[in-house]
Design goal:
By secondary structure, the protein is of the alpha/beta class. The chain contains eight helices and ten strands. It is globular and about 55 Å long.
């Protein structure tokens, strides 16, 4: 069940969505939603009931406890907020939350129903994957779209992939099935520098959103944070000649990927499972 906080009247709204979990290396995609929520002063619109979709032993609620007892319980959830960017002729709906543990088809259907209620006209899905890329050049953003003209304008390459999928891919399929224009964008995060946060990856996704919407997106402090991140990675790289040689070879390579390759996604999935530890083996 979805809880609405009033149903707003929106102008040609576009949905931008990202989820924490496997789809979100270094929290790069979910940080885009956090950044836009703050910059555009988005207001809460709706919350999806978490009970049908989350295993609370895996995605545990957090609590605040004082001498007077339990003061607050925060449950994992997925929520919608709406914003009216300055000088824009359309509104933006932001969706974020944790990747659900189960009932993915029902989850996607519920999101599609909410989008129908909000009269969403376009969808942008964001993800981040660890990959073999350099860090000094702009981080590549690849993607796919069911809008051929848009894909051509953004120079998206054809995709030929078979392998594990995250909730972003299933949502893309859902919107494609109901014929809503949908674009998925994946930023490639250097796997050797994938500790959260990675402001450079977040900034790369913001630039792609600007291209998709033809709308200026305020960077806030991300430019300065990116410079600090690059300086820190440089210090770490300079301390190890083998790593420096490896990264130089990546920087010299031709960085023109389409969708993340099957090998990239398989390796990223293995890394994600290792980060989760023994609990992943219990699912």
């Amino acid at each position: 069940m979805t809880e609405f906080d009033g149903l707003p009247v929106l102008r040609s709204p576009v949905l931008i969505a990202a989820f924490t979990g496997w789809n979100d290396a270094a929290d790069s995609a979910s940080q885009v939603i956090s950044h836009l929520t703050e910059q555009w002063q988005a207001r809460h619109v709706a919350t999806i009931d978490p009970d049908p979709y989350y295993d609370f032993q895996m995605a545990r609620p957090t609590v605040k406890v004082t001498a007077e007892g339990v003061q607050r319980i925060d449950w994992p959830f997925s929520g919608f907020s709406a914003a009216s960017p300055a000088d824009a002729d359309r509104d933006v709906v932001l969706l974020t939350g944790a990747e659900p543990s189960m009932h993915w088809r029902g989850f996607c259907e519920e999101i599609a129903e909410i989008c129908h209620s909000l009269e969403i006209e376009q969808v942008i899905l964001l993800g981040a994957i660890m990959a073999d890329v350099g860090y000094a050049k702009p981080l590549p953003v690849s993607g796919t779209s069911n809008d051929p003209d848009l894909a051509s304008r953004l120079r998206m390459e054809d995709v030929d992939y078979e392998g594990p999928a995250g909730i972003i891919t299933l949502l893309h399929s859902t919107f494609q099935h109901i014929e809503i224009p949908v674009t998925s964008c994946w930023v490639h995060v250097p796997h050797y520098a994938s500790t959260s946060p990675c402001p450079k990856a977040t900034l790369s996704l913001l630039h792609r959103i600007e291209e998709l919407l033809d709308l200026p997106v305020p960077a806030g402090g991300l430019v300065e944070q990116t410079a600090e991140w690059e300086n820190e990675v440089t210090r770490l790289v300079e301390a190890d000649s083998d790593i420096a040689d490896y990264i130089n070879s990546l920087e010299d390579a031709d960085d023109s990927p389409g969708e993340p390759s099957g090998d990239d996604i398989a390796r990223d999935f293995e890394r994600y499972l290792r980060r989760r530890g023994p609990q992943a083996d219990e699912e």
